[in-house]
Write a structure and sequence with these properties.
Layout (H helix, E strand, L loop, with lengths): L2 H13 L5 H12 L9 H6 L1 E5 L4 H4 L2 E2 L2 E2 L7 H4 L4 H4 L1 H5 L7 H10 L4 E7 L25 H11 L3 E7 L23 H19 L5 E5 L6 H14 L4 E2 L11 E2 L14 E5 L17 H13 L3 E6 L9 H17 L7 E2 L8 E6 L2 E6 L7 E4 L5 E7 L7 E5 L2 E5 L10 E8 L11 E3 L6 E4 L4 E3 L3 E8 L5 E8 L7 E8 L3 E10 L8 E6 L2 E6 L15 E10 L3 E9 L9 E9 L2
Parallel strand pairs: 1-4, 1-10, 4-5, 5-6, 6-7, 8-9, 9-10, 19-24
Antiparallel strand pairs: 2-3, 11-12, 12-13, 13-18, 14-17, 15-18, 16-17, 20-30, 21-24, 22-23, 24-29, 25-28, 25-30, 26-27, 26-29
The chain binds 4-nitrophenyl 6-deoxy-alpha-L-galactopyranoside.
Length: about 600
Amino acid sequence: MSLLKKIYLVALLVLCEYSSYAQIVERWDKSVSNQKVDEKSKWFQDAKFGLFVHWGLFAQHAGEWKEKRYYGISEWVMNRGKIPVADYRKLAQQFNPSKFNANEWVKMINDAGIKYMVITAKHHEGFAMFGSKASDYNILNTPFKRDPMKELSVACKKGNVKMGFYYSQFLDWNEPNGGGNEWDFIEKNKDYKAYYNSKSIPQIKELLSNYGPLGLIWFDMPGGLSKEETQSLIDDARKIQPNCLLSSRVGQGLGDFRDFGDGEVPSTVVKGPWEAIFTHNDSWGYSKFDQNFKTPAEIIHLLVSVVSKGGNLMLNVGPKADGTIPEASVKCLKAVGGWLKINGASIYGTTYGPIAPQPWGVTTLKPRKLFLHVNKVPSNGVLLVPGLNVNIKQVSLLSNKNKLLWKKDKNLLTITLPTKLPDDINTVIVVEYDGQITDSYLDAPVVVSPRYPECSLEVIKANPSGNTKIIPVTHSLYFGDWKHTTCATDMQSPSDGITYNVQFTEPGDYKIMLEYNCPIENSKQEGLLQVGDQKFYFETLGSGSYDTWRPLMFIKQSVAMISVSASGVKTIKVSPVNEGKAELFKLSKIIIEPVK
Ligand code: JFZ
């Protein structure tokens, strides 16, 4: 691993004061689970959909420096190219986003159905995108001369969009006492407190004082402050704007809402205010060559998935140096907004779905209304909704209010779907009911039905045994482009393994496949799949090594063909056969396909 990668990873962990993801979760759970969800964060939890904007001098490089293209997060080019401060600062002399129009941005936000925006006021490059008295390295000292943050705060107020600022409170590659620049400055000579007192804290106060009521301050990459000093920074912020929410990346397990890792969605429901953040392509800052944009369907599915677990999605755009937003992002957000115009009632103001994910999709909830998000249609046109211990009043399509035929047998609701669903990306069905839906069904068995091309048994639904851990495994396609896949890991002896309870809705023949990552050097170990009392042995196949800095490559291996004689619950278990030289594999899911 290169020195830069080590620095980034260590910085990421040390600056976040965490030694592992588990500790991130554990430390947060300790602090936030004691906090009641108060009125202050209600707007945030109702909003569900935010826009992240990464804009700075880095947009001029657009991922390139001295004819070299840097794949991954383009706002880190100064660090990756070890660009001397003296050279980098020249960018400020030519920065003139003449096509910037705050009202056009806010119109795009409104058309997208987005309710809040968080924009980089100062990223790690140290340049303030706002007029600052604390540092002359700011946008007023450029050919642009205007304060785009001021113009955005006016436009957001007019467009009823909550405004927030991203602020990198510790990493500052422009400053001798800021974090992260080891190529111009000597780490051991740094005085972080001097940096906080002369630039970071004064600028945070400027943002809180000069841009009207803010929805949130999105701190990032904490470091250099003790828990007490972080708390006093929070106290100072509260004195200026008590209702402004602060992100969990303020550090020390503090903050008003929880941010997960970049590009990460928790695999289960998470209670309390939280947010998943995603790039639109593979970079936060504008990149002139990164065309890997997520489609409207992918964004809608991501938004629905996040909201079904109780969170917000904040999707990022990276404006160009001229002040315009890439056309691919504008078009995509408009299409997502079109879906929300019709289906927004199933997103805004909802809470997490009380029913575990089903083969057809997931759910969200409002009092007396359960929303079924159908993105896979059963071949027989009959939707099975388990776990409804309530009095059903009506079932209809959200988009056109058309009533649907339904019947209920104990806690199983059966809905007859129309031959053509109104939306082939995600159709929403509203189940109106009396009474209280309990969460009890979140832990129900995973459902497998032959009415779908395949059913996935995500490992989060399994029970681990022995040393087995079910955790998010972090990897990346390119530098800083983090991905997180929940896997069952550390299965190395026969006493380790995972067990599912699986509800087969109908008898039939089924093919069982395992999806896993297994480094070639650890492959050819023997595993055992047990379905009820049937045993199926398999030998693992190599899929590629695991390294945080590379894509985690998965392989799908067919290991069994079973006949299920009647509907009902079966246990499915996976474990190593022998005491292995290494873990059997990192298992992400079991896939079950009906045999046609
Ligand atoms: C940080 C920045 O370095 C990056 O440029 C971008 O602004 C992103 C939103 O935030 O990157 C991080 C910070 C923290 C984690 C991962 C990436 N983390 O704690 O997993």
